[in-house]
Amino acid sequence: MVLAIDSLSSLASDWMVPNCLKIPLWDSGLSELLKIEGPSVPAELYCSKFQWKIELMSMVEEDGYSSRCDLCDTKVVYSMTELLLRGLATASVDSTTGDMFKSASSVAATVKTELENYLLVRTESLVRESVEGGEDHLDLLMKGSTRPTEFLSDLIDDFVASKRNLLSHVSGFLSSESRLNKIKDFMQKMELENVWAVDVRKATAETILESIDMKCIFHCPEKFVEQDKLAHHRSRCKFRVVGCKNDGCSASFSAIHIEEHDAICPFKALPCEQLCEQHVMRREMGKHCATVCPMKIINCPFYHVGCETAFPQGNLDNHCSRLLQTHLLYVLEASTRHNATVNDMNQRLQLLEKAQSLNEISGALDVRSLTLIIKEQGAKIKKLERDIKAQEAKMKKLENDFRSGHE
After folding, report:
1. Positive or negative: CA dihedral 179, 184, 185, 186
2. Do residues 8 and 63 lie in contact, with contact meaning Cβ atoms separated by under 8 Å?
3. What is the DSSP string of 247-297?
4. Is 83 within the bounds of a domain?
5. What are the TRAF-type domain coordinates in residue numbering (predicted)?
6. DSSP 203
7. pTM of the entire structure?
8. Domain-embedded: residue 50
9. Which of 87-96, 115-124, 271-280, 334-343 has the weakest average pLDDT?
């Protein structure tokens, strides 16, 4: 939607109206907002000769221009299309919370129509009232002109608030994780089922954007009579869609964002951060610098034997060949230290072995002593056994003698 002049032919021949002119200069607040350049027009000319109106965008205009560029900032339009889908999901979920007979899916189509109408009518109303001098809406229109996504988000929030049922107004539910999960799940479901097609949401977002973008920051207002001139303009328009030229990147965006994207594109080939001669993709830079970069700082391979020099790994061969003798000396010194350590360890090992032998001998002596004691005790036990047997023999003899005497 744009604000247009009913009859351009009535304008004085000594001044021209810029294509981006949308509202009368006699409104001080809005003229400051728009900062329109060009010759000033007498206030009485506007008041007596022109009426201003809000009209939907169309391919055929009353001012004689048959074609508009109408290209928009794709980044802003994409953000607005996402807001529209989330707004529909939120309103559908909140309006059916706790309702046993309705679900978010069953009311989505109706809510979508209501949301579209609300946004278009509300936007038209705000613009008209601002043009007619309504100071109350000037700040909101200013936000729409400079921060359209925030403007749309505010309108959607107002619509969602109007759709909440009694249960949805419970503060605990509004901030609950369950509600947020339901909204997220329903958004995914609508995308899969194409409840609100991306192209339709995009058209709605572009219509709203063109209505509130009074400064023409986010869309192109240029108009042409001839189609070939329109085609030529669109091939150079700052809002034309272009693709990233970096190999491997499939991103597309409005031409106005080329530099912005180029500054963050992961496929952009950049000079090595460590100043080697290679160009590396931004996303591979960290890996390159940490592994194969010739300028990566490394320690000498002979670091552990004494060479503590650090240098770019690309200079490894030169370093090793230049300090060959030094490295050999380090190796010999380390070998000598190693041999001394080995001798010391051998001596310690021998002492340990001797100590172990002494322990074994001591243990052996203890075993022999115990063996002798056991043998002595065994001999005593055997002697006692023999004595017992002798006493038993004597007892039997006495018994026999006693029996023989009585007979």
Report:
1. positive
2. yes
3. TT---EEEGGGHHHHHTT-TT-EEE-TT--S-EEEGGGHHHHHHTT-TT-E
4. yes
5. 261-312
6. H
7. 0.60
8. yes
9. 334-343
